Amino acid sequence: MSTTTSTKPSAESRASDVVALGTPGPDVAQISRRALIWRRFRSHRMAVVGSVILLLLIAYVISGSLIFTEDYANDTNLRNRWQPPSAEHPFGTDSVGRDVLARTIYGGQISLAIAALSVTVTSLIGTLLGLLAGYFGGWIDSLVMRTAEALMSIPLLFLLLVLSRTFSESLPDFRVFGRELSGSVVVMILIIGFTGWMQLARIVRANTLSIKQRGYVLAARGLGAGSLRVMIQHVLPNTAAPVIVFATLGVSAAILLESYVSFLGFGVLPPTASWGNMLQRSVERIDSAPWLWFFPGILTLLTVISVNFIGDGLRDALDPESQR
User: Fold this and answer.
1) Torsion-angle region of residue 4: left (phi > 0), alpha (psi -120 to 50) or beta?
2) Residue 4 pLDDT greater than 50, yes or no
3) Which of 64, 77, 129, 267: disulfide with 262, CB 3.0–4.6 Å?
4) Structural domains in the chain, sorted by start
């Protein structure tokens, strides 16, 4: 009697075929969302490089203030003016003999602080107005969107110049964390923050219109959850990804805006240093003293590039359809 060999694949062979085809196994399926986002971000090499560069820049402006005092950065010595880079002054000196290295440290603190705080203001305003417009609709939606469209029709740089010229000299100097800052710093934060929310509001509104029609939101409303609770617990967490990406990329945009306005003489005013107004003061010796614009310029460039790399990495990591 002949023996018949069964051709039905065993469980082990089926499992090996599944692995070979790339179907995720139980371990992969159990990866948390945070771990998945972190894995995607790490796989974006330029985002990792950008993170390292940005951390080094932050360490530079923070640790540098432990070596050089602000009084030293603002100390003038006409006998040392226009000195090229040397052992005593690695970044050279400016038109009144101030050490450029020390001023890039304290100027970087101001530029990064303006960027971070203005983006925080923009994110709060844009997210709040976008949520309200998308969730409630009606006259609230019309008011928010028509206001956003009206502001977007005005060239942003022109608006910044006009507002900065109007308000920069109206606020007195103040001290914070032991530093004396000009009132123009607060003006720049508020102006950039209050004039950059429109695009984010449109993004959040579009996401909110989609999310509020989903089953879990309708179920929450059917169980008696109020509008505030639904927006905070269900709508806002599911629209956080584009807000994070927008805020990250907004940092580089804010740094450039501050540099533009300060370069034109309408931004951060002396005695407070920023990378932007350092570039503005280098114009008078742009050929004979290139170190005046090179060092603040390269620091600004590295910051913008690194933040853009991080933003690209976050966009890919937070994308639910990403296959990385």
Assistant:
1) beta
2) no
3) 267
4) 35-73+91-318 (1.10.3720.10)
